[in-house]
Amino acid sequence: MFSKRLIPSLFLLCLLAGSASAALANQTPMERIKAAASELIEILSDPDMQDPAKHDATISRLRATAEKYIDFRQVTMLSVGRPWLKMSQQVQSDLTEAFIQLLERTYLQRIPVYEGQDVEYTKQLISGKKAKVFTVIVDKDKKILVEFRLKIIQEQWMIYDVVAEGVSLVGNYRSQFAQVLNDGSPEELLKMIRERVEGLDKTEDDKDQVNS
Amino acid sequence: MLKFKKETAVGLFVLVGLVAIIYMSVKLGNVQLFTDKYYPVRANFTDISGLKINAPVHMFGVEIGFVSTITLDQEKDVARVDMMIDKNVKLTDDAIVAVKTNGLIGDKYLKIAPGGVGDPVNPGDTLFDTQPAIDLEDLISKFAFGKV
Q1: pLDDT tens, A92-115?
Q2: Range of A72's domain?
Q3: Which of A38, A99, B70, B79 is most solvent-facing, going by the fewest CB within 10 Å?
Q4: Which of A130, A138, A169, A179 has the highest number of chain B CBs within 10 A, making it the mutation to test binding with B?
Q5: Cα distance from B90 to chain A (closest Cα, Å)?
Q6: 3-state secondary structure labels for all residues of chain B
Q7: For residue range A22-42, what is the model confidence (pLDDT) as tens digits?
Q8: CATH number, residue A155
Q9: How many distinct structural domains can be found in chain A?
């Protein structure tokens, strides 16, 4: 009786495990990074990118692509650390959204026109559910070492940290957030990030006015 | 009677001297014999230039352990660093271990930025998120002479 019940459940378990590993085997972490890079390069090399009128549309295209490969909730959670567990769901999602906007303003707005920078894939290290992909971005004679850290989230390799020239994105924000959260509440951190985003938007507007 | 006293005094003196020598070598040499104060944790780095055995491990600037062994893993092409961490310090697997320099040209040490949202780290586990030693000279040359 017992074994009769057990067999179908075991079979189901094997099937589930099989499908999970099959989904994982579809793409190695390095293939995932390669796919992300080629998709981003395609958007960046689009002539529309240089058209200031279509700037916002391009940014949102870049963001949609980035969200396919980067788990921003995970990035925010790791940057916040332990205080994350005490935050309400609402604060967590507000913080994630504000953090995405901050990253967008800090990095995307500054992305220059794509000038044929090459990406060399050095190696990948997989350890359980985590992986590192080492790449070198070659920009003319400059070589920048960039390491992507990935984690299996919903059966897919998703980026949760980027280490450029030995400096980790999560590590950098973790120390800054810890300082704010040590003195204040999560709401204060949220307010601070939003103010920073507004500040960055303002300088961008000023620059546009000067240029026009 | 008198002779016996003299010999006892010499013997005692030698004994005290020996105990003092053993105490000093254990204390100064950082010998960790018969201690269960620490648990081992491993981390792999792509570059640890300057990091030495017995270098301290810090968290928020507080010393919580030391580097016990440094080996080369040629299969993965990484430097494997084994640390001994104070038993009272609990780590989670999202902690970031970074090779840092004391001041601009000081000694290298390890800094752990605790995460707090990951799974607990058990003795012998490997911390996955690491930051290599930053080569300041390399960075300066890259940005000072990089452009044509």
Answers
A1: 999 999 999 898 888 776 656 677
A2: 2-211
A3: A38
A4: A130
A5: 13
A6: CHHHHHHHHHHHHHHHHHHHHHHHHHHHCCCCCCCCCEEEEEEEECCCCCCCCCCEEEECCEEEEEEEEEEEECCCCEEEEEEEEECCCCCECCCEEEEEECCCCCCEEEEEECCCCCCECCCCCEECCEECCCCHHHHHHHHHHCCC
A7: 445 478 999 999 999 888 888
A8: 3.10.450.710
A9: 1
